[in-house]
Every structure is written in C-alpha cells, then in structure tokens.
C-alpha cells in the first residue's frame, strides 16, 4: 500500500472494535426506554379492551344493527301512541263526568268570578286610567282623525236623526192629541160611510114615494130608512137578551147543567119581552130616537114636535108589535101617507122625521 494511502487512513477516526461497557447507562437513555415501554404496553392494553366490541361488531353486522334500531323505534312509537290514547281517554272521561259541573257550581256558589273581578277593579284606578288615555297625545290624534272622517260624521248624523225620529214618533203616537185625531178620523170615516148609506136609502124612499110633504121644510122617514133602523134595533135588543142568557148558560154548565123545559123557554121569552120593551120605550121617551134611528138620521116626535112621553111610547110599541105580527102589513100606509106614518104612528099620534 502506498505511503499516501497510509497517511490518509491514519488521519480518519478509528472504528470501535468492541462495545463500550459504559454505553446506554446514561439517565436520558434510560428515561426514553421507559417511555417507549409504557407506550407499547398501553397500546396492547387498548387492543385487548376493545377486542369484545370488535368481535360483536363482526358478528352482528350493519344490517342487524339497523333492524334492531327499527324495532326499537317502532316500539317507542307504539308506546307513545298508546300513552297519548290513554291520556285522551282519561281527559274525555273526566270532562264527561260530573267534575266540570261540580267545579262550575262551586265557582258560582263561592262567587269566584265576582271576587276576581272585584279584586281587579280595586287594583285598577279606572278614573286615572281613562284620564291617562284621554290625555295621551296618540289618543287625541286618533280622535281628531276619526272626527275629521266624513264617513263617521255622516254615520253620526244619520244615527242622531234616526234616534230623534224614533223618539219623536213614539212621543207623537203616545200623545193624547194624536189619539184624539185618530179617533176623530175614524169617527169621520165611519160617519162618511154611514152618511153614504143613508143617502142611498133616502134616494130609495124618494123613488118609492114622490108626494110632497104637507109640512113645508119638514122631511119624514121613508120605508127603506125605517126598515134598516128597525133591523138594527132588533139586533141590539136580541144581543141585550142573548148575552146575559149565554152567561147564565155557561155558569149552569159549570155547575152541572140543566135540562131544557117549558119554564126555561118561558123565562127567556119574558126576558126578551121585558128587555125589548124597555129598549124601545126608553130611547123613544128619553132621546126620541133609538140607536138604529140615530144611524139613519131619524127621530120620533109627538104632535108638538117633542119626544113622545112614556105612555105614548108604550102605545107606539104595541102598534109596532102588531104591525110586525100581521106580516109587516102595518107598514103599508107609509109610502102613501103624506107624513109617511104607519099603524104604530096612527095609534100613538107620532111622526118619524128625517134630519136635513
């Protein structure tokens, strides 16, 4: 080997030929070794700990885990629905039972609502609250806008007019003056109708008898007007008998009733004679005209022009009954006599005048 190579090798670091007995005993090398040993031990322990879980995962598989989760979810939903149904059924039974009525009754008996309202009203100062609301600027602004609205003004005016019209109408209808005016209007209408009927009947009298009256300026009642007046009077006399008889019959039926017999018919006949006689004699002697004669504008007078006396009226009634009893033959002289007198007038010395 050349000298140059030997020099080069002599200059490089010599390699150890055997282990140094002091190498690896330094403290830092020992600490690193302890740390690495602990780390390996922890990894091995962790693997051993999770080994059962890994084995269960391999055995179960993803599909079985999902199936188990679905079964558990279905059971949970069924339990929730069953619990909700039980709660609803319990609530329905409670509301359908007597409990709500009992609670309401107790609330009314103990005046719970009144006490609550009274407590609230005591705690609230209504005057102060209303004053505060009215003094609020926003309230004033809204009121001004509302009052300035033409539609509101029109509605208010319409409401006021309707109210005033209703009150005025009620007062007018309730006033005695209106009642008197209505009565006068009704009387006037009835009078016009009766007057029209009376005029038509007098025209019939003039058609049946055209002889002038022997007494200038005096008109006497004819056959048509007197027949209508007598019919009205006969109806009123019958009513004066029938109304009390009906009342007696009703009272008798309530008491058990009675059989019709000759004495009952006799009493009814005598009652009609008494009432009818009193009716005609009273009106002739006191007023000089019956209600039927008033409607037809007729009145009975004696030769002096006054209402007939009681005796003269009674004699005239007898003549009237005889005139009707002989099939109204006692009225035949009326169309031919100048003063249109019938049998009753000839007997009693009376006349039947017609109003102008």
Protein described:
The protein is mainly alpha-helical and 356 residues long. Among the domains are: 127-174, no CATH class; 185-354, no CATH class. Helix content is 75%, strand content 3%. It has 13 helices and three strands, in the order ααααααααβαααβααβ. Strands 1-3-2 form a three-stranded antiparallel β-sheet. α9 (223-254) crosses α10 (262-286) and α10 crosses α12.
Which descriptors would you attach to this protein?
75% helix, mainly alpha, three-stranded antiparallel β-sheet, 356 residues, 3 strands, elongated, disordered N terminus
How would you briefly describe this protein structure?
It contains 13 helices and 3 strands.
Helix proportion range? over 70%
Radius of gyration: 64 Å
> How many strands, what sense, and barrel or not for the largest sheet?
3 strands, antiparallel
Q: What is the strand arrangement across the widest sheet?
A: 1-3-2
Category by helix and strand content = mainly alpha
Distance between the termini: 194 Å
Average pLDDT level: 76
List the secondary-structure elements in sequence, H or E: HHHHHHHHEHHHEHHE
Beta percentage is: under 5%
- Please count the helical segments: 13
Which regions have little confidence, pLDDT < 50, spanning 5+ residues? 1-19
Global geometry: elongated
**Total beta strands:** 3
